[in-house]
Write a structure and sequence with these properties.
By secondary structure, this protein is α+β, with helices and mostly antiparallel strands. Helices cover 32% and strands 28% of the residues.
């Protein structure tokens, strides 16, 4: 099914929303029996050049020309689930505080953050969000062994 209205196009099969030259991919997923949409926005500003993608408030930003793998999308979906269970503001607050605490620890602070450890650990499992327990990231609070 394909809809066209003014300069906007929405294709239900590929789940792509187009506004002129801008394109938004919509990925539907189930979380606690409700459907959430992950918007993917290709742009020239976000994320910073060292990163492939950044998830801000459940919207995935990536640079134009970047190809997103299913693993990267799954990684960011896990972050969206973490955000929702911590009511978004709590997620960002905890993320920042944990990053500060982990700066003096061995390794990069980013890769030691519990949210990142859970997301990297399960990004290759497409079914992880179906059986993920609430607050599963808490078991990654302890230091790596």
């Amino acid at each position: 099914m394909h809809f066209r209205s003014l300069n906007r196009t929405f294709d239900l099969r590929s789940k792509v929303l187009t506004f002129g030259k801008s394109q938004i991919n919509l990925h539907f997923r189930s979380l606690n029996r409700t459907f959430a949409i992950m918007k993917i926005i290709h742009n020239r500003i976000l994320p910073p050049k060292r990163f492939t993608a950044i998830n801000l408030f459940g919207v995935l930003f990536c640079r134009k020309g970047t190809s997103l793998t299913t693993d990267i999308i799954q990684h960011e979906r896990i972050h969206t689930a973490q955000m929702l269970e911590m009511l978004v503001v709590g997620f960002y607050l905890w993320y920042f505080i944990e990053w500060l605490v982990r700066i003096p620890m061995k390794g990069r602070a980013y890769s030691n953050i519990s949210f990142e450890r859970e997301a990297y650990r399960h990004m290759h499992n497409p079914n992880y969000l179906k059986h993920r327990r609430p607050y599963a990231w808490t078991k990654y609070l302890r230091r790596k062994k």
